[in-house]
Automatic annotation (TrEMBL):
Pfam families attached to this UniProt entry: Methyltransf_2
Source superkingdom: Bacteria
Name of protein: O-methyltransferase C-terminal domain-containing protein
Boundaries of every O-methyltransferase C-terminal domain copy: 8-130
UniProt-listed SUPFAM superfamilies: S-adenosyl-L-methionine-dependent methyltransferases
One example GO MF annotation: O-methyltransferase activity
InterPro entries reported for this sequence: COMT_C, SAM-dependent_MTases_sf
Length: 214
C-alpha cells in the first residue's frame, strides 16, 4: 500500500492493538453502534444476501450478519494484523468457509473487489483521507444496501480529533490522521450513486445509517 495514510493505519493497528480489540470483542461483544447497524439491516430482508465489509477489523459485524442469514462475506482490510485476527476469529466461529479475505487499501484494489448486495463500513470512513473515492467506489459495489457507522459532523468533535488523536499521532510520528468528513458530502455521494437513506440514528459521537438502492 503506497499511501501515507495506509502506512499509518498499518502502524496504528499493530499486533498489540489488534490483540486487545479481539479480546474486547470476545469478552464484551459488538459495540452498540454495530448492533444498531445490524438491527437496521435486519429490518430489511437480508436473507441469502452477500456482504462486502470494508475495514472489517476483527470481523464482528461479518459474524453477526452471517448468523442473521447473510450468505457469504468478503472482508477487505488495510491492516495486516486485523486481517490475520479476522481469519482466526472466523475459524473460531465456524465461518471460515463463508468469508473471503482481501488485504489492501480498498480504494487501490477496488477494481478487483467483487460487488455485493450489502456493503458496510463500520467506523472506517473516519480512518481515510480520500472520502470521495472510498465512499464513491464502495457505493458502486453495493447492489442493494449500504450501511455505515461514521462520526457526526460536529465542531467540538473536530476539535477533539485534532487535539487528542491527530496531535498524538503527529508526536508519535504516525502518518495516520482521523477525519470528520462532512455528513452532507457523504450523503450527496450516495444519492449520486442511486441510494436513498432508509435509516439514520445519532449515537453519541457516531451516526449510524442505512441507504437503499432506489
Ligand atoms: C477503527 S477500525 C474499525 C474496525 C471495525 N470495522 C470495527 O468497527 O471494529 C478502522 C478499520 O478500517 C480499516 N481501513 C481504513 N481505511 C481502509 C481502506 N482504505 N481500505 C481498507 N481498510 C481500511 C482499518 O485497517 C481498520 O480495520
Amino acid at each position: 500500500m503506497e499511501c501515507c495514510q495506509c502506512q499509518g493505519i498499518e502502524a496504528k493497528f499493530d499486533q498489540a492493538y489488534v490483540s486487545e480489540q479481539l479480546e474486547n470483542y470476545r469478552n464484551d461483544g459488538l459495540k452498540k453502534t454495530a448492533i444498531q447497524l445490524i438491527d437496521a439491516l435486519q429490518a430489511e430482508d437480508i436473507q441469502g444476501l452477500s456482504l462486502l465489509d470494508i475495514g472489517g477489523g476483527v470481523g464482528g459485524l461479518q459474524h453477526a450478519l452471517l448468523n442473521s442469514g447473510v450468505r457469504n462475506a468478503i472482508n477487505v482490510e488495510a491492516a495486516s494484523a486485523y486481517l490475520e485476527a479476522c481469519k482466526v476469529e472466523a475459524e473460531r466461529q465456524g465461518h471460515a468457509a463463508a468469508i473471503d479475505h482481501m488485504q489492501g487499501n480498498f480504494v487501490e484494489i477496488a477494481e478487483d473487489v467483487p460487488a455485493a448486495d450489502i456493503v458496510t463500513l463500520d467506523r472506517v470512513i473516519c480512518c481515510y483521507h480520500d472520502m470521495p473515492n472510498l465512499v464513491g467506489l464502495s457505493a458502486k459495489k453495493a447492489t442493494r444496501f449500504y450501511g455505515v457507522v461514521y462520526p457526526r459532523d460536529i465542531w467540538f468533535l473536530k476539535l477533539i480529533v485534532q487535539i487528542y488523536y491527530n496531535f498524538r499521532h503527529w508526536v508519535n510520528r504516525n502518518s495516520m490522521r482521523v477525519f470528520i468528513h462532512p455528513t452532507e458530502a457523504v450523503e450527496a455521494l450516495l444519492r449520486e450513486n442511486g441510494f436513498s437513506r432508509h435509516f439514520h440514528r445519532n449515537m453519541g459521537v457516531w451516526q449510524v445509517a442505512v441507504f437503499k438502492r432506489k
